[in-house]
Design goal:
This protein has ten helices and 15 strands. By secondary structure, it is of the alpha/beta class. It folds into two domains: 56 residues, Orthogonal Bundle (Arc Repressor Mutant, subunit A); 194 residues, Rossmann fold (3-Layer(aba) Sandwich). The strands form four sheets. The protein has a seven-stranded parallel sheet with strand order 6-5-4-9-12-14-15, sandwiched between helices. The relative contact order is 0.13.
Length: 265
């Protein structure tokens, strides 16, 4: 069993039982105590657990029970704001570049905005994003394999994560479930968080996209910290105080104007 699979299973145990013991995990996964302690240390760094003597306890926070809505429902939330953010992100792309697009409602708008940009190579784990990219005949599309998540029409799991190691993309475009000044960019799904981490490792420039609502909550687990991100794109509906704090950390921020929304009405 590879480390990603073991850690995902440990996180599932934590969600179910609220706590774990090192001794029990050593027996269950047939690994050393040192290995389990490294896993728990990683979870603590992510803000997912608090270690104690002999194990760890799940950290309960507000908003951590948020479920992931089906993709069609998420696309309808703040649709025009997301459309503007996605359109602005697509403007970064030049012909003949390689892109990785994460599954998500805002990244779907990036894909829709790529029409007319020639000879792109797009790698994605999202079926609806792959479909959107077919509108451009010159785009090469690579759909990552793995287990299909019906609610997001995306693939996750070790197979997809291993495939990502083959690529070196010019841009990686990522959505996020929430943003925390302590945790960075977060996801509400353990498997999708691991996929996002693999995408971050496969790109030269990392771009995170989020509508204003994502700055008011934190997801279940962190997938990247601010120092791993080159650019954050949001709208002028976002809390200026939070944006100021993120900018102080060193992240470049693009804020799109929602006054343009009337053009899409």
């Amino acid at each position: 069993m590879i480390a990603v699979e073991r850690r995902n299973m440990i996180k599932e145990l934590l969600l179910k039982n609220r706590s774990v013991k090192v001794s029990e995990l050593v027996k269950q996964f047939n690994v050393s105590e040192e290995t389990i302690r490294r896993d728990l240390h990683q979870f603590e760094q992510e803000g997912f657990v608090q270690k104690n003597y002999g194990g760890a306890i799940l950290v309960d926070e507000l908003h951590r029970n948020d479920s992931i809505l089906p993709i069609q429902q998420r696309k309808s939330q703040f649709y025009q704001e997301k459309q503007l953010i996605g359109k602005r992100a697509a403007q970064l792309v030049e012909p003949e570049q390689t892109l990785i697009l994460d599954a998500g409602s805002t990244t779907w708008h990036v894909a829709s905005g790529l029409e007319g940009i020639n000879n792109l190579m797009v790698i994605t784990n999202a079926m609806n994003i792959a479909e959107a990219c077919t509108r451009n005949d010159s785009t090469s599309i690579y759909l990552l394999g793995g287990k299909l998540r019906r609610n997001s029409l995306s693939t996750v799991g070790p197979q997809a994560e291993i495939e990502l190691k083959k690529y070196n993309a010019d841009y990686v475009f990522l959505g996020t479930s929430g943003i925390s000044l302590r945790q960075g960019f977060t996801s509400s799904d353990l498997y999708e968080a691991e996929m996002k981490k693999a995408m971050v490792s496969a790109g030269q420039k990392i771009v995170v996209l989020a509508d204003h609502s994502k700055l008011q909550k934190a997801g279940l687990t962190s997938f990247c910290h601010f120092d791993q991100v080159d650019l954050f794109i949001t709208s002028d509906m976002a809390d200026e105080k939070i944006l100021y704090e993120i900018e102080k950390i060193g992240v470049e921020i693009i804020v799109v104007s929602t006054s343009e929304i009337k053009e899409f009405s």
